[in-house]
Amino acid sequence: MPAPIIKVDAISKSFGTFKVLDGLSMQVMPGEKLALIGPSGSGKTTILRILMTLEKIDGGHIQIDGEQLYHMERNGRLLPADERHLAKMRQKIGMVFQLFNLFPHKCVMDNVTLAPMLTKGVARPAAEKRAMELLDMVGLADKAKAMPAQLSGGQKQRVAIARALALSPKIMLFDEVTSALDPELVEEVLNVMRKLAAETDMTMLLVTHEMGFAHDFADRVLFFDRGRIVEEGKPDEIFRHPKQERTQGFLKKIIAAGHRV
Amino acid sequence: MTQWSGYLGLILQGALVTIELTLMGSVLALIMAFLAGIGRVSRFFVIRALATTYIEFFRGTSIFVQLFWAYFVLPFAGLSLTPLQAGVLALGLNVGAYAAEVVRGAILSIGREQYEACTALNLGRWQGMRHVILPQALLVMLPTFGNNAIELLKATSVVSLISLADLTFQAQVVRSQTGSTLMPFVSVLVIYFGLALIISWGIRSLERRMARGLDGVRV
Asked: Residues in domain ABC transporter (chain A) (predicted)?
């Protein structure tokens, strides 16, 4: 049995007096596709942001690929990670945001090539060649010279996915990547993610309200509530036969709101 | 008539000095603005403190006094400047202090999501600043930079107090030599206004060029 690629151990996180994560532990195996669902404020987005080092943790430990994320081991002691250590760890992780966060002053091509050229020292021709492959994969090879403002929401999000992939992370985090999209644009983004799941062995963590997609996409579903994982299991178990009352209540509300499961 | 054209020549010479002061002062102001403006958002306390001290000091004291210090007091410290050098120094440092706050404000106006994208793409702090934040912030700074440059242009007239023959100085010369008040002062009024218009126009076209592709959409 291989070692988990993500090992979250009893982490806690508060914003002010509000405890978002309360001693949360979880493990993710390499290549696993995980869907994180739950009501807003349940901590599912926060755990992604913590894995991307966008939020600090108040307590606990996280291991990525066998190495501490927020700590450095020095002579057998654990010290808080410095910027250098964090930069090294971030190489393993990529993230796609709800609001795309493209660089509006750069064309699609430059959005995708900027980070590989700056952080990995890839030469421009090689970076652009790789970017074209990625843009082709997300179906936007013809938009390489377009500016983000000229793209639809779905196209922007596909560029954002290509941009994150350009750094070849082992782990991809998707934070409600279709929530800001018009309904008719959701599918084009989901299709890219299906393709990604089918063609790569990347570990993928997905925070979503698209229950139908989570059902088809995920190997395992985690239901979050009040900073804890209340229930987890195979998509069929969670969506068809939820055991916990809170999971049942949440799914009922989601279905009542018109989401397909 | 030939007499008038001779006097106009004097005034145009003054205009050249004013333009020279404005250009050189703006370059120094721009450098100081970015140094102090970025310094103000530094992670390091010492850099923040230095930047803040500079800004507060040069905003809080009069440009006249700063110019007198640069020209009359610095020689006591062993640093003798020509009137032009003193003028550029005082103007650049003074306007740079105001513009530094413009730089800081513009940097802070860029949304958190842009910084987060930088982190997620593993850009270093300076890489993100240089390639992502500053290029976007520059567009926010430009209109106010235009204001600052025009302020600087108008402030150049203080150098006449240390006998640098700028536009205002030459107008006084012409007035005392001809006894005519209207002609020199109308000329300098028109010239200052014309120069300010050129700055406005330059900044606006720069703005238009930089905003191209953004389509007014700023996410």
From this structure: 6-251
User: pLDDT tens for residues B112-147?
Assistant: 999 999 999 999 999 999 999 999 999 999 999 999
| Paired tokens of A57 | 């943790």
| Alpha carbons B15 and A236: distance in angstroms, whole number | 81
Nearest residue to B28 via CA among B75, B109, B89, B98: B89
Which residue in A101, A118, A147 is closest to B214 by CB distance?
A147
Which residues, in sequence order, are bridge partners of residue A77? A74
Can you give the residue ranges of every domain in chain B? 2-211
H or E element in which residue A248 lies: helix A245-256
pTM for the model stands at 0.88
Is residue A88 within 8 A of residue A32, CB to CB? The reply is no
Is B136 in CB contact (< 8 Å) with chain A? yes
Query: What are the beta bridge partners of residue A94?
Result: A172
CATH value of B2-211 in 3.55.50.30, 1.10.3720.10, 1.10.260.40, 3.40.50.720 = 1.10.3720.10
Q: How many degrees, rounded to 5, is the angle at CA A21 between CA A19 and CA A25?
A: 155
CB contact under 8 A, A103 and B117: yes
Which residues in B lie closer than 8 A to residue A102 (C-beta atoms)? 117, 219
List all residues 6 or more positions away from A183 whose beta carbon is below 8 Å from its beta carbon: none
Q: What is the rounded CA–CA span in Å between residue A100 and residue A148?
A: 10
* Average pLDDT estimate for B190-214: 91
Whether B139 and B75 have beta carbons less than 8 Å apart is answered as no
What was the ipTM of the complex prediction?
0.91
In this prediction, residues B8-24 reach a mean pLDDT of 93
Residue A60 pLDDT exceeds 50: yes
How confident is the model at residue B37, as a pLDDT? 97
User: Two tokens at B168?
Assistant: 């205002």
Domain definitions of chain A by residue range = 94-168
- Give the C-alpha separation, B214 to B157, whole Å: 39
Chain B's closest residue to A113, CA to CA, is B121
Positive or negative torsion for Cα A261, A28, A91, A116: negative
Q: How far apart are the first and last CA of chain B?
A: 60
Nearest CA to A31 out of A225, A174, A171, A175 is that of A171
Question: Residue A21 pLDDT > 60, yes or no?
Answer: yes
